[in-house]
Amino acid sequence: MPARLSSSSASVSAAHGRGHSTVLSDPMTGEPTGHHDIDASALIIEENKTLREPPPSSSLVFGHSFADHMLAVNWNGATGWAAPRIQPYGPLTLDPSSVIFHYAPSLFEGMKAYKDVEGRVRLFRPDMNMKRMNTSAERMALPTFSGKELTKLIAKLVSLDSNWIPSEPGYSLYIRPTLIGTQAALGVHPANDALLFVISSPVGPYYKTGFKPVALEADPSLVRAWPGGVGQYKLGANYGPGIRVQMEAAKRGYQQNLWLFGEEHWLTEVGTMNLFVALKRDDGSTELVTPPLNGTILPGVTRDSILGLARDHVSKKAPIEGLPDNLVVSEREINMGEIIKASEKGSLIEMFGAGTAAIVSPVDRVGFKGRDIQIPAGEEGAGPIAKAMLKSITDIQLGRVNHPWSVLVEDLL
């Protein structure tokens, strides 16, 4: 067993190289067996011969309808990455002993493709998703890859299924890149076989009729992540354990959980989103606070975007209408004690979650230790900062504002 583990580890290390043009060969025959890295130029396309009609946008349910094609790239510790394939969307065939079913070597990303105001297809900050996916893969002892090459392949997939991207404002194509260990062998060790695949699903706006604030339950007896753990990685194993907790919270009238940590009840994340709090300070300024990336929090793309836009507003590089002139942006620890004091003092301005699905999700109350803390949500269901951030990010995603975060798919092909 030790010899096999050593060999597997060496293979993983070799496959982590970035020379995607390097072809691996069979040492006996000299025939090519794979690539050190994903190679978009080696793409094989098998078009679906039975194309389906995308469902009406008005009938879409998040994650229930899927486009005609999917991307699949196999990896092996000895032969590297196989040629990428775009093929008809369909079931996977895996051995019952595949490690994914037993030890959960699984990670994923969530990103979207949009049709802009001119009908062109755009991706929003795909480099951030690729960076985070590689970070998760490295933590799970799964193969890393060139993010640029995978982005090219995703662009090709999206282009092929562009008729599945709704044209109505607020609609998009949700993209789910996934990487799993597939080696057919029991035993806790680095997987010697893996599969990277990408599927996509047309989705509608998170809010059908404007903002709808959510209520959160903050139960100090429950913990999502801890220092030294894997809370900062987008792993499938981080999400399944939260389902029962959310079901129990729903019975008490709360839509999502606000995860806390430690005896001080530090705020971390909201369900599947990052968290922002706006406070009025004694000097009259407005502080926008989000917990720091301390190892227990997922580095969200929307979180990073909100921070970047807010800081550009503060520096006057790109002022945003609706944001306070005296805004202070903070990545710092904040706990329930501070939230309660701010609420009692009247300095708690707003609270919202941030994520790919909704961009921002306003919060109007937090249940904590048997009491509800009321959060101002405005007449329209959201505070001024949440509304300004939603508009700013949406304008970039739809090409209304020229910004390097919005990438044209046609430029990647």
UniProtKB/TrEMBL annotation:
Residues 1-15 have a biased composition (Low complexity). Residues 1-36 are annotated as: Disordered. Its EC number is 2.6.1.42. One of its GO terms (cellular component) is mitochondrion. Keywords: Amino-acid biosynthesis, Aminotransferase, Branched-chain amino acid biosynthesis, Pyridoxal phosphate, Transferase. One of its GO terms (molecular function) is L-leucine-2-oxoglutarate transaminase activity. One of its GO terms (biological process) is L-leucine biosynthetic process. It holds the Pfam family Aminotran_4. The modification N6-(pyridoxal phosphate)lysine is found at residue 234. Its cofactor is pyridoxal 5'-phosphate. Gene3D superfamilies: 3.30.470.10, D-amino Acid Aminotransferase, subunit A, domain 2. Transmembrane segments: none annotated. It is an enzyme of class 2 (transferase). It catalyses: L-leucine + 2-oxoglutarate = 4-methyl-2-oxopentanoate + L-glutamate; L-isoleucine + 2-oxoglutarate = (S)-3-methyl-2-oxopentanoate + L-glutamate; L-valine + 2-oxoglutarate = 3-methyl-2-oxobutanoate + L-glutamate. Belongs to the class-IV pyridoxal-phosphate-dependent aminotransferase family. This is Branched-chain-amino-acid aminotransferase.
